[in-house]
Amino acid sequence: MALIVQKFGGSSVADAEKIRRVAGIIADTYCEGHDVVVVLSAQGDTTDELIEKAREINPKPSKRELDMLLSTGEQISISLCAMALEKLGLPVISLTGWQVGIKTNSNYGNARIKSVGTERLRMELDQRKIVIVAGFQGTNKFDDITTLGRGGSDTTAVALAAALHADLCQIYTDVEGVYTADPRIIPSAIKLDEITFDEMLELASLGAQVLHNRSVEMAKRYGVNLEVLSSYVRKPGTKVKEVTNMEDTKISGVAKDSDIARIALIGLKDEPGTAFKIFRVLAKSNINVDIILQSVGGDDTKEISFTVAKADMDAAVQALNENKAVLGFKDIDVSDKFCKISIVGAGMIKSPGIAARMFEALYEANVNIHMISTSEIKISVLIDVEHAEMAMQSIHKKFFGV
Amino acid sequence: MALIVQKFGGSSVADAEKIRRVAGIIADTYCEGHDVVVVLSAQGDTTDELIEKAREINPKPSKRELDMLLSTGEQISISLCAMALEKLGLPVISLTGWQVGIKTNSNYGNARIKSVGTERLRMELDQRKIVIVAGFQGTNKFDDITTLGRGGSDTTAVALAAALHADLCQIYTDVEGVYTADPRIIPSAIKLDEITFDEMLELASLGAQVLHNRSVEMAKRYGVNLEVLSSYVRKPGTKVKEVTNMEDTKISGVAKDSDIARIALIGLKDEPGTAFKIFRVLAKSNINVDIILQSVGGDDTKEISFTVAKADMDAAVQALNENKAVLGFKDIDVSDKFCKISIVGAGMIKSPGIAARMFEALYEANVNIHMISTSEIKISVLIDVEHAEMAMQSIHKKFFGV
User: Which residues of chain B from 14 to 73 reach within 8 Å of chain A, CB to CB?
Assistant: First the structure.
């Protein structure tokens, strides 16, 4: 008998029929003799509908009141799911974030979990109840409701699994697991049986939107065994662990990230401190920079290019222009017509030649590379967005044969 | 400067425009220098929609989970209303039942308030914030969410007013106050400036659905000054107090109650203990009996008739039939074609002849009386339902001249 945390996202509980399906999965797990803690998101479009209700009244509501509003979404999901399990004759109880004792900081809208109470959970589990917990929410030191921001319910699930020392944390999604590439782009993509935390982190940050980075980071830190699997197809998914058995696998996936804008500062003075000044300006505006490229121009000038998330593009340009005199660039060039293609693999470190094979695949597909970035387990290239699919197919074929 | 509790019902906050109107009333009160605590119900049909969602999944959900579900309705209202006040630039905070510390017993779906915390409320009021509280909800000793049942938000408002020793508790509705009769039946009905708690209690229990009895009873017990007024028309409503100045007013209103079923037990043995046995059976089934009439039949038998709420009719008949042998009646006659017309007035005690005038009015309208019941401040008659309007008009004209 194990203790299993199961998380279901908003699309998995979107309507009565889907809630019944989810209840079936939970019931099966429980009836196999396991203790089950379930974490749910708000139903389907509930969160968007609530945000729309708020905007009608106040386009800029305080984040505190927005969290008060949005947290009702998960509360509706958990009570409905509990009712579905009651219908199956199983002992069940739903608990909100504050009832569990999920304590966060006061960063409304994007709060961090500080601690998780286990007393109430243990008490209910000891009575062999299925416990359904509202994801995405907690309370701060004032007892005010906070929400955890993007990927919040995954984070709740991992935090509960860590606090309860659960044997497994299952993240149910609408895909069957983690693939070597997005199956919508590469239909021949292969489902992975296992993947390491680090690989998963790189894939998540590269746009493979299966798991949010925060939850993977937390799982890695607390050694929580994750499994990503489908709420529609009953078969094993992808296990995310510290170390996998797949020693011989060089790379575990190809990922695409189109949420990229490239900014180039042209005509910078070629003197020490230029880069430092630029990236300090951006850091002060809370803008994350990804790939950076520096090249020499004519007339003792140089050019610095870098990529940011599309959402940060305008803010970045504004911050740079406001500091134009200090930074001393002549021109600024902005484009969001690029995308980033990456290969990820923990086995990469021990295998020379991986980068060469990737570039070979791109050459064969006649794709021009604008920027390159590498880490221990990742190689990324910036290419024109219209070449994205061709590039991914060629790389996937090169490494996986299909 | 006073401390005022204002309660707005579901129809007053049904959409964005109505919430803005409510926010305007609150803002005006606050800007006059008062401290304001607001209690809100769920928006319009939200509660019904949530119940429908539940029924789709489980026609008989546990009351505990139903309360978990329904309590989200008020949470949505309070956050939206707080946002509307933020838009007006006013300091405001919304609080759920558990955040305020509204403690109830564990009777899910119809819980009773046991205590109200004032610490958080005082803290926010001390900072000159408008405090918006979710009505209808509290938590029990397990920290589980409970709801207060019918009239729950009125009860929350009065409980907060009592706990905070508020100067006034205003109940905003879609009518301008308490009338001498239902204006939909008697268009010439007169709005009362004042009314006593006892009169209000009789009127509420007689079907004048302005205030729920629970809240009036609580207001009477804790000496909370109530005012019933309109959320659409800005003018004084009706004050509900312990003693009013209207010494000369004999009666304060005429009320109709159509939620009546009459049950007659025919051919009972005319011996001691018959009535006791009958009403013990009903009490055991938790059925409230209103008017009781006993008459002598032929052959040493008697007949006992009484009225119950329509919802209890089938249960009453079933309970009586199950005990037919013990009770020893020959026949049972049931009808819901009656209604109860009552006149209410604290001045009645000191004024003989009130009953005679009421019966005279009914005689003039050619209305037959089936049963009569009187209390210190009330006279009720049971008549055929199709005579209801005629009877009310005649009585209203007799006492109020219009």
Answer: 16, 19-20, 50, 53-54, 56-58, 61-62, 64-66, 68-69, 71-72
pLDDT, tens only, A47-73? 999 999 999 999 999 999 999 999 999
Closest residue on chain B to A63 (Cα): B83
Nearest to A61 among B16, B64, B83 (CB): B83
**Same domain, residue pair B26 and B152:** yes
Output the pTM of the full model: 0.83
Residues of chain B with Cβ-Cβ distance to A127 below 8 Å are: none
Among the partner residues A56, A61, A69, nearest to B76 by beta-carbon distance: A69
pLDDT band at residue B249, thresholds of 50, 70 and 90?
low
Question: How many angstroms away from the CA of B23 is the closest CA of chain A?
Answer: 11
Q: Is the distance from CB of B30 to CB of B36 less than 8 angstroms?
A: yes
Distance from the Cα of residue B316 to its chain's centroid: 23
Q: Which two tokens stand for residue A345?
A: 């693999």
Domain stop point among A173, A190, A219:
A173
Domains: count for chain A = 2
Which residues does chain B have within 8 Å of residue A66's beta carbon, measured at their own beta carbons? 79, 83
B61: chain A residues, CB-CB within 8 Å: 79, 82-83, 86
Q: Which residues contact B144 (CB under 8 A, 6 or more apart)?
A: A99, B64, B67, B68, B106, B108
Domain that holds residue B268: 261-335
- CA dihedral (A3, A208, A238, A74) positive or negative: positive
Cross-chain residue pair A68–B79, CB shorter than 8 Å = yes
Read off the tokens for A196.
């390491």
Residue ranges in A88-212 assigned as alpha helix (H): 97-100, 119-126, 152-163, 197-205
Give chain A's length.
Answer: 402
Are the beta carbons of A353 and A334 closer than 8 angstroms?
A: no
Residue at a domain's end among B173, B189, B216: B173
pLDDT digits (tens, 9 = 90+) for B110-146: 999 999 999 999 999 999 999 999 999 999 999 999 9
pLDDT for res B246: 53
- Beta B137-139 vs B130-134: how paired, if at all? unpaired
